[in-house]
Amino acid sequence: MEKLTGPKKIKTAVFISGTGSNFKNLIKFSKIKNSPISINLVISNIYNAIGLKYANQFKIKKKIFNFQDIKYTEKKILSLLRKEKIYFICLAGFMKILSKDFIKKFNGKIINIHPSLLPKYKGLNTHHRAISNRDKFAGCTVHYVTEKIDSGKVILRKKVNVTINDNPTSLAKKVLTQEHKLYPAAIMKIFN
């Protein structure tokens, strides 16, 4: 008897620069039955990014690119994405800015997770800025990537309370916990 298989999962690449906790979380999410994605490739701009260990652990193809010549690097990445038939990209703590040209040429979807309630606090040091401004709430946002930093259409946001005892480190931990829930939820929203 023939084994029934569900719909094909969308081949996805994750771009990372750091510890890869969102990458690991997305791998776990991709393994569940109703997940719309499979993670087939990880790209990093940091040779010894801690998150690359998950690529080894889960036997995911990994590629490291140094971004000294951005045009050349992006061309190589696009050609790799085509070769691997990647349709979807998740940026997860990727600390390089993709060019307008790259975003246009990759005509699938590129999404990013950002540790603030966009449009508030685009860019870096979001937790420090939220605390300095005595915000009552911080949080995270999953959004589409456009040529303007952290400005694409919002897919989902999640709030966390900022308490009087919070510092940038404690707030970052609280937000990261929510990021791990929000990223899969945003992907489900896109593909359902």
Summarize the structure.
This protein is α/β, with parallel strands linked by helices and 192 residues long.
What is the CATH superfamily classification of the largest domain?
Answer: Formyl transferase, N-terminal domain
Report the CATH C-level class of the largest domain.
Alpha Beta
Seen as an oligomer or otherwise, the chain set is single chain
Strand content range? 15-25%
Q: Could you estimate the helical fraction of the residues in percent?
A: 25-40%
The spatial strand order of the largest sheet comes to 3-2-1-4-5-6-7
Radius of gyration: 17 Å
The count of β-strands is 7
Structural class computed from helices and strand pairing: alpha/beta
Give the terminus-to-terminus CA distance: 30 Å
Average residue pLDDT: 95
- Helices and strands, in order, run as EHEHEHEHEHEEH
Under the CATH scheme, the architecture of the largest domain is: 3-Layer(aba) Sandwich
Give the uncertain stretches in residue-range form: none
Q: The biggest beta sheet, please?
A: 7 strands, mixed
